[in-house]
Amino acid sequence: MNFPDETISKYSESLSQGETAVLAELNRETYAKVLMPQMLSGGLQGRILAMFSKMIQPARILEIGTFTGYSGICLCEGLKESGKLYTIDINEELEDMVRTFFKKAGLENQIDYRIGNAIDIVPTLNEEFDLVFIDADKNNYLNYYNLIFDRVKKGGYIIADNVLWSGKILDAQEDMDADTKALYDYAHKVKADVRVETLLLPVRDGMMIARKIV
Ligand SMILES: C[S@@+](CC[C@H](N)C(=O)[O-])C[C@H]1O[C@@H](n2cnc3c(N)ncnc32)[C@H](O)[C@@H]1O
Fold this sequence. Notes:
With 214 residues, the chain is an alpha/beta fold. The chain contains 8 helices and 7 strands, in the order H-H-H-E-H-E-H-E-H-E-H-E-H-E-E.
């Protein structure tokens, strides 16, 4: 289940800025060559991330879950001139493709792409972030939130993808599988955290935005 439905999504996309040629090529190549291509953010969500980035104008962004690089390229659209995106993925098989597309997008000097387990890599990043995008293994969402929280600037944003999990998030708790339960716990714990204000945006698979207020 995607929100809003397919027809409304297509209509919204048609009246939104289109993908760049590089993003369109990456979208096509991901669907042609990579397993589970639906993990890619895609048109409308990509434009939302790019617009957020342009509104925030971040100096430092952290993305957990690069996949083929689509969302990372979108997030870079609003980076400050000297800004940098750190992006982490555990899947080394996609490295060549990802680096090729970061280069095609002219971003090889603005993106620091790390291969490995984000749980190990995040603590080694000595930066303060304006924007964090969590889009990797669901069972670690809360761990990622806790790991990065002190390194997000006051007024900075933590965005977590897939918090509606195709609507499964509305199942009875005793029927939830482990990933659904992890996403449920993430959303409820973040909502209860008095250090942030939250917005659950019901677009595509749900994005939960937490703005740090302390
Ligand atoms: C949903 S995809 C990311 C999609 C991408 N952000 C986009 O929108 O195009 C999730 C990615 O998280 C990665 N991943 C899963 N567990 C991870 C971990 N422990 N550390 C780093 N990356 C991980 C997977 O290899 C996969 O590429």
